[in-house]
Amino acid sequence: MSPNNCALLVVAHGSRRAASNDEVRQLAEVMAAKAGARFTMVVPAFLELATPSIPDGIEHCIQAGVSEVVVLPYFLSAGRHVAEDIPAEVDIKRLQYPHIPISIAAYLGSDEGVADLMLGLV
């Protein structure tokens, strides 16, 4: 991963509740501030019910001039959305931009630290 010209696309499901979508947008802003030089930009995107869509989010990053995009699924389990839907949406842009690496990181719930994080909440 190129630390100087890589975008991180944080992908959530999307909600009819605007405040829920705004939480994801705020999370992306906090992540951008904490990422330092690791990512040129951190952008939120949504699988459905909110904008930008995954392809639109990737397009935004590419049009901003990044040379690589990492898609981070903000999901707790590897259901159909993580296993099938997100990869299908990412593939749309991989076909359009075969010269730009677009990878999918592990989903949030797969990290062993999630259990400790959850226990820290109670």
What does this protein look like?
With 122 residues, this protein is α/β, with parallel strands linked by helices. The protein has a single domain, classed as Rossmann fold (3-Layer(aba) Sandwich). 43% of the residues lie in helices and 18% in strands. It has four helices and four strands, in the order E-H-E-H-E-H-E-H. The protein has helices at 18-35, 54-63, 80-96, 113-120; strands at 6-12, 41-46, 68-73, 102-104. Strands 2-1-3-4 form a four-stranded parallel β-sheet, sandwiched between helices. Strand 3, helix 3 and strand 4 (102-104) form a beta-alpha-beta unit. The longest helix has 18 residues, at 18-35. The chain is globular.
* Level-2 CATH architecture: 3-Layer(aba) Sandwich
Total number of beta strands: 4
| Total number of distinct structural domains | 1
Strand order of the biggest β-sheet: 2-1-3-4
Largest sheet: 4 strands, parallel
Question: How does the overall form come out from the CA principal axes?
Answer: globular
Assembly status: single chain
Alpha carbon gap, first and last residue: 36 Å
Structural class estimated from helices and strands: alpha/beta
| Total helical segments | 4
- State the share of residues found in helices, binned by percent: 40-55%
CATH fold category name = Rossmann fold
Give the rounded overall mean pLDDT. 96
Q: Low-confidence parts lasting 5 or more residues at pLDDT below 50? A: none
Q: Main attributes?
A:
single chain, 122 residues, alpha/beta, Rossmann fold, four-stranded parallel beta sheet, 4 strands
Concise account of the structure shown:
This protein is 43% helix and 18% strand. The protein contains four helices and four strands, in the order βαβαβαβα. The protein has a four-stranded parallel sheet with strand order 2-1-3-4, sandwiched between helices.
